[in-house]
C-alpha cells in the first residue's frame, strides 16, 4: 500500500492563533533531526499561512489557499477560513495518500492557524483518525503565556487539554510556548503536582473556584492530563522534556478511547 | 458620567467560527424587541465581518478592519485577524465610552468570528470586565450541531462552558444553534440531567470515558453549567428558553468570581 515507513510517529501541533505552532514545528523538527538523528517529515495543514519557516513535504496549500477562496468566492477572511478548512476535508484522500508515502520516522503536522476550525469542525477529528491508521499519534496543545496570568487560567489550560483529547480521541500534551515571557509565580500554576494550585484556589471565594478545585481533583488522578511543559521554540528550552513526554505517550498510553 | 441606561443587561455572543453568532445576535435582538417590547442596542466587536444582518449601534470596524490590516501591514488572514483583535483592545476606551452611552435596556454584543481570539487573548476578558462596570453580563456560548455527534462531544461542550466562565469571569449559557440540524439521540446528550449521559459513558471503555464520567459528576453538582439550550436563529425555536435562562443568570447568580 504505502511506500513509507509503516509505523510513523505523528506529532500534531494544535493551538490557538498566534500560539506559535508553525515556529515550534520548525524548531522541534530541527531538534529531532540534529539532536536525535531522526528523519522528520513536515506536513502543513494550514491553508491560510503565507510563509513557513520549514520546507513542507506535504502542503495543504497545494489544494486550498485562503486568499484564493476569499477572491473566488468573494468571502471575507472569517468565512474564507471556515470554507478553506472544510475544503481540506474533501481533499483528505489525496493529502493522506501523500502523507502515507512519507519515508520519515517522525511526521510533524502543523494545523490551521485557528485552533477552533480544527477542533470544533469535522476536519481535525477526521485527519487524526486517518493518522492513527498510519501510526501513533500525539497531539501537542500549544498556548502562549497569556494563559498563565491567573489561577483560573491554569485550570482552563487543563480543561482545554481534556477538550482536545475528547474531540481528537488522542492523547495530548499541553505546552506553554514563548516560556521566556512567563511571569513570576507561574511555577505553582504549571506544576504537574496540582496540590499547590488547589490550595491557592481554595483561598478564592465563589462558585467557580469551588468547581475548579473539584475538577482539578479529578484531573490529578489521571496522570498526563496534569502535565504542562514550558517550551521556547526560539531558545530550544523544554524541547528535551517535550521529547521525553512524547515518548511516554507513545509507549504507555496507546489509544485513549 | 454616562447618558445611557445605568444598569444595562449585556448579552455577549461567543462561539467558534461559523457557529452563527451574528445571525443569532440579529434574531434574538429582534425577538426581544418584538416579543418582549425591550429596546435593544447592538454592538459589533468583530473587525473581520463583511456584512451584518443587524444595524450596529456601536461598530468595531469604525476603528479596525481586518481587510485594511491585511493590506497595510501586508499580513495573511491568520496574522491580520490576531493583530486586529489585539488592536481592538487599544480602542477599548472609545468603544466602551460609546457603549456606555447607549440608552437601551439590553445590549447584545457580537464578538470576533474566531472565538479563540476573544477567549484566549486579552481582548475578551478586558471587554467583559468593562461591561461588568456598566451592568450585568451573561455570555451565550454558541456551538453548532457538529458538537453533538458523539457522547464525548457532550462532555466537551460542558467543559468549554467552564473554560469560558473561567476566562471571562462571567456566567455563561451553552446553546446549540441550528438545532433543526440536530441528529437523533441528541436529547440524552443535551439533557440538563446528566444521568443518562453518564450511564452511556460508563458503557464505553477507556481512560477518557472514565474521566469524563467523573468530570460530569462534578459539573452536575453546579446547576447552570449542565444546561444546554437548543436554538434556531432562523425559525426562532428556543429563543424563549434562552430568554428565561438569561433571567435566571441575571437574577440569581450575580458575579461568579
In terms of structural class, how would the helical and strand content of chain A be classed?
A: alpha/beta
- Rounded radius of gyration of chain A (Å): 18 Å
Form type of chain A: globular
- Strand residue content of chain A: 5-15%
Q: Could you give the count of β-strands of chain A?
A: 7
Largest interface: A-B, 60 and 60 residues
Series of secondary-structure elements of chain A, N-terminal to C-terminal: EHEEHHHEHHEHEHHHEH
Q: How many H/I helices of chain A?
A: 11
Strand order of the largest sheet of chain A: 3-2-4-1-5-6-7
Query: What separation lies between the terminal Cα atoms of chain A?
Result: 26 Å
Write up this protein.
2 copies of one chain form a homodimer. Chain A is α/β, with parallel strands linked by helices. Chain A is built from 11 helices and 7 strands. In chain A, strands 3-2-4-1-5-6-7 form a 7-stranded parallel sheet, with helices on both faces. In chain A, strand 5 (135-143), helix 7 (151-168) and strand 6 form a beta-alpha-beta unit. Chain A is globular, with a radius of gyration of 18 Å. The two termini of chain A are 26 Å apart. Chains A and B meet through helix 2, helix 3, helix 5, helix 7 and helix 10 of A and helix 2, helix 3, helix 5, helix 7 and helix 10 of B.
Amino acid at each position: 500500500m504505502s511506500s513509507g515507513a509503516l509505523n510513523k510517529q505523528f506529532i500534531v501541533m494544535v493551538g490557538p492563533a498566534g500560539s506559535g505552532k508553525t515556529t515550534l514545528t520548525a524548531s522541534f523538527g530541527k531538534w529531532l533531526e540534529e539532536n536525535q538523528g531522526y528523519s522528520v517529515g513536515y506536513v502543513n495543514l494550514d491553508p491560510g499561512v503565507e510563509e513557513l519557516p520549514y520546507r513542507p513535504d506535504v502542503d495543504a496549500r497545494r489544494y486550498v489557499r485562503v486568499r484564493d477562496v476569499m477572491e473566488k468566492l468573494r468571502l471575507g477572511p472569517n468565512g474564507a477560513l471556515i470554507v478553506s478548512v472544510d475544503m481540506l476535508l474533501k481533499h483528505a484522500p489525496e493529502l493522506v495518500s501523500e502523507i502515507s508515502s512519507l519515508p520519515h520516522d517522525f511526521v510533524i503536522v502543523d494545523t490551521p492557524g485557528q485552533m477552533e476550525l480544527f477542533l470544533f469542525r469535522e476536519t481535525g477529528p477526521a485527519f487524526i483518525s486517518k493518522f492513527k491508521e498510519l501510526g501513533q499519534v500525539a497531539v501537542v496543545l500549544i498556548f502562549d503565556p497569556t494563559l498563565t496570568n491567573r489561577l483560573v487560567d491554569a485550570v482552563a489550560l487543563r480543561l482545554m487539554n481534556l477538550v482536545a483529547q475528547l474531540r481528537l480521541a488522542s492523547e495530548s500534551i499541553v505546552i506553554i510556548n514563548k516560556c521566556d515571557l512567563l511571569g513570576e509565580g507561574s511555577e505553582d500554576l504549571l506544576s504537574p503536582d496540582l496540590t499547590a494550585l488547589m490550595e491557592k484556589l481554595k483561598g478564592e471565594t465563589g462558585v467557580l473556584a469551588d468547581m475548579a478545585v473539584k475538577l482539578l481533583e479529578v484531573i490529578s488522578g489521571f496522570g498526563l492530563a496534569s502535565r504542562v511543559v514550558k517550551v521556547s521554540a526560539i531558545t530550544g528550552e523544554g524541547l528535551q522534556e517535550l521529547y521525553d513526554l512524547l515518548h511516554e505517550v507513545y509507549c504507555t498510553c496507546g489509544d485513549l478511547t
